[in-house]
Write a structure and sequence with these properties.
It is built from 15 helices and 19 strands. The chain is of the alpha+beta class and about 600 residues long.
Length: about 600
């Protein structure tokens, strides 16, 4: 079995003007073609098509229907010459149709989710409590819908309800025809690395050099074959790129624009590399149970099928959370200033342009931080699974998770986007290392004692007794038990209990023997990497108080510190402390 990893390679700034023209050209032409095909019939048709997206279309008809003069005026702001006619090479046409087709397929899936949601909508605006009920009813009816689609659609439906006082009757009433904001161009519709008519590429394994020839327009509105030129680039790879290309073969890349943290634009080719995956054996003798917490990104604990806790619980917490909060506050301030300028009719002034530019820079930094959070936390969790040699990773079903209410700036950070993205990245990374990923849908995992099975309550901290629903510390209500511990640790253990039980509920015969204090240690920011799946080292010495894993900026720290030995005489230290001083995480090189 094989899958693709995507590796970006930056294009040289010396040809930035050519790449910018290609970007703008694809953006405008693809938007026009998409609008011509934005109909229910085409969404249905491409949804039923199993071929590459571009093969759904007639290769020439969409471009014959283009209004070349209107397109010219949109791009240049003036009327074109009377004899103007846009020229597109045939393979560029196919690549644009691939882009349009992929967009239509995505909206076909969203329309399916919308049609399912229509039957369970309330007669009023969807509030927080109804969001979860809608998801539960959809799943109970046998409809498996992406949590991401449901969340996005609910937000769209609420916005529509605010404007019209009712819900739309059709998906096309809710969703306008999309506009492309950049010129992403998939070359998968071209003729291969050597015979490509839009791009050619060759990788020399001995020299580890990548040569690329790209066809770009000499003007944003080319009129003939002579207005298109080839440009050759010798591109520099990086260690992981060379490592993976030695294991697999490059596939047709995707041309795309990206932005640095300061907002400056650059262009790159993203090459998929076909890599063999490792099949899981299907047994689940030992699992890594995960809980997406309110204050930690992930809490993880290893449990075996007999109910023995194999590892100390570990908290995985992104180190730059505080910076993300500061950036979020700054974005809110700038957004409020933009709104004030609009209200005062000053949205044409230089001040408005300056504030808007700063808003875009801050927003871009937040996006980079989000990507770094997801990448680093995911790598940490997968590395833990390999350290403890687990068979399966178990997480709580996303439909049971909701953003916290009344938590101020935590709400935006801990909304479902982060949890969903982390779980999705974990799932596909685990394919390469032979670890199954399963989900359970438990109730009240953070309010049931993992030792005796009694109910408990959460409080602010170990020093407080008063119950608060958002508290981070758990106390068992059974006076004869007296267990207490971190709320997210308790939830992770209970996720494992549900997985190993014979029912969908908590098995009260499954208990934990771990107690003690909790500790979360944030890490310093690392150099990081943009790789989808990079290399990393797990280093842990018995005398250390924490273990850093995966080469990212997240940290794994002991969540529960034992004051003495366990009842069975063991020291409570999992295989990380007892057997490993250094661990090389498995990548495609070692699969």
């Amino acid at each position: 079995m094989s899958d693709h990893l995507s590796l970006p390679v930056r294009l040289p700034d010396t040809h930035r003007d050519q790449h910018k023209r290609l970007d703008e050209f694809v953006q405008h032409v693809a938007t026009c073609v998409l609008h011509l095909r934005w109909t229910p019939e085409h969404l249905t048709g491409i949804s039923n098509s199993d071929h590459q997206a571009w093969k759904y279309f007639d290769e020439h008809q969409p471009f014959e229907e283009l209004d070349d003069h209107a397109l010219y005026k949109t791009i240049h702001g003036e009327a074109p010459p009377e004899d103007f006619e846009l020229y597109l090479p045939s393979r560029i046409r196919r690549c644009i149709l691939q882009k349009v087709g992929e967009t239509l397929r995505s909206h076909a899936d969203r329309r399916e989710a919308f049609q399912a949601i229509q039957d369970v909508l309330p007669t009023h605006k969807i509030r927080r409590i109804h969001r979860r009920r809608i998801k539960e009813e959809l799943w109970d009816d046998g409809e498996y819908l992406s949590s991401g689609y449901v969340d996005v659609l609910i937000d769209q439906l609420n916005t529509y309800y605010d404007r019209h006082g009712r819900y739309p009757d059709s998906y096309f009433e809710l969703q306008d025809a999309p506009e492309y904001s950049n010129g992403v161009l998939p070359y998968s519709a071209d003729d291969g690395p050597a015979s490509g008519q839009a791009i050619k590429y060759q990788y020399d394994e001995d020299d580890q050099s990548l040569t690329v020839k790209m066809k770009t327009p000499d003007t944003v509105t080319p009129e003939s074959r002579g207005d298109w030129s080839w440009h050759e680039h010798e591109l520099d790879g990086y260690d992981a790129f060379h490592t993976l290309t030695a294991r697999g073969s490059l596939s047709a890349p995707e041309f795309q624009s990206s932005r640095r943290k300061n907002g400056d634009q650059f262009y790159e080719l993203s090459f998929p590399v076909d890599i063999d995956t490792t099949d899981a054996d299907g047994d689940a003798d030992r699992v890594l149970a995960l809980d997406a917490g309110m204050r930690k990104d992930v809490t993880a604990v290893v449990v075996d099928e007999d109910g023995e806790q194999v590892s100390r619980p570990h908290f995985v917490r992104f180190a730059d959370r505080d910076k993300m909060r500061r950036l979020h506050r700054e974005r809110q301030r700038l957004n409020a200033r933009l709104a004030e300028l609009r209200r005062n009719g000053r949205d044409y002034t230089d001040e408005f342009k300056e504030v808007q530019a700063e808003y875009e820079r801050v927003n871009n930094k937040i996006q980079h931080k989000r990507e770094q959070l997801i990448h680093d936390v995911t790598n940490q969790v997968v590395a833990l699974a390999l350290v403890y040699d687990v068979d399966t990773m178990v997480h709580e079903d996303l439909r049971s998770l909701s953003p916290p209410s009344g938590e101020g700036e935590l709400s935006w950070e801990l909304s479902s986007w982060a949890r969903r993205e982390i779980i999705e990245k974990i799932e596909y990374r685990c394919e390469y290392v032979g670890v199954d990923v399963e989900r359970v849908y438990p109730q009240d995992t953070s309010r049931v004692c993992p030792r005796c099975g009694s109910t408990g309550h959460t409080c602010k901290s170990p020093d407080h007794d008063e119950e608060v629903w958002w508290g981070g510390h758990f106390r068992c209500d059974n006076a004869r038990c007296g267990f207490e511990g971190d709320r997210d640790y308790v939830a992770a253990v209970n996720v494992a209990r549900v997985f190993f039980s014979e029912t969908d509920g908590l098995d009260h015969g499954f208990t934990s023997s771990y107690t003690g204090d909790c500790e979360t240690v944030p890490a310093r920011r690392s150099a990081g990497t943009r790789l989808t799946f990079g290399r990393g080292v797990v280093a842990y010495r018995p005398e250390q108080a924490r273990a850093t894993v995966g080469g990212g900026s997240a940290v794994i720290a002991p969540a529960v510190v034992l004051s003495g030995s366990n009842a069975d005489g063991s020291d409570g230290c999992g295989p990380t402390t007892r057997e490993y001083t250094q661990f090389q995480r498995v990548t495609a090189e070692h699969c």
